[in-house]
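Record FERM domain containing 3, 169 aa.
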Amino acid sequence: YMNILSLFSSPCASMLPTPVEDSQGGVNQLFSSSVQSPARFLRELHADPDIQAQLEAEREREGTYECTRLGARNGMSEVLSSSLHLLSSNERVNTWVLGIARFVAVLMGVLLITVPTLLLLLESDIDVSFLHEIRQTPEFEQFHYDYYCPLRRWILCKISMVMENLWSD
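=>
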């Protein structure tokens, strides 16, 4: 029973600092001693041949790692530059890639213009026969009630919140 109490009351378990007597020199002795001065400690470290050998080995490892990393980067850049040169030198590949890029750009432009325009026409009150027929299809009704109406309400709600914030300030 006494042994357990001594474990709990040991100075190592205490969160409070351990008192130091000034008669023994205290904290000032740690910093005033020439043996423990930082400058002397660093001189001793630099004079130690084992530590110098370890530092030199570490410098060599870092140097070889850096050379390997730069070599890999140079190798990758050479591969990329050669493949870019191959693509740019071949006129048929160049025109084919440009043709595909133009086709994709035109297709995206047409979709970005026609889909919103068709949606606006279908949601408007214009009474044209083909629009009326499209409005009667179950697919359009599902789209209208499941997607368009909630999106419209959300956008109008956000706009009204912004307007209220602008007018309230």
